[in-house]
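Exercise 3.2. Students should predict the tertiary structure of the chain below and write it as structure tokens, then compare their answer with the key that follows.

Predict this chain's 3D structure.
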Amino acid sequence: SLKDADHCVAQIQELAVPKRAAYGSLFGATFLWSSRATLFLCHPDLDFLVHDNKFWVCTTGWQEDMGEEEFLNLMNQLGFFPLCAIRHHILIDSSSAFFVQFEGMERTKRAMSRLRKLKWRWRIKREVPFFAYPRRIDVHREDEDSYADE
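Answer key:
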């Protein structure tokens, strides 16, 4: 339902606010909604893609007909050097998203900062999600005794 979806978004998107006078009326507040764009993707092919590996980055807004090999060549030209890329078609805006895996956390963080710079250089609006650090969300219903994914 809509209420359950709002509750899930609230749990995922809450950020702690430090207790500092610089935050004015928020002084002493516990949580604040983040102003960052959040991207939620739900597809059976993506359920176990990232699994327990923390070295993935998701980037969106690429051309619909761009393939994985073409994307990897572009990333290598830009100096990213990922291990692999998995393409996911976004139906709403007819574009492609790519889940890109890197060698370690250092390269993953470097890729995130470089994608942030590319977003600024290419003048992509702040509200448009261009890259994200993917997290797998495991949702269980109260009436379930056993879970199909475990």
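Discussion points: The radius of gyration is 18 Å. The first strand starts at residue 14 and ends at 16.
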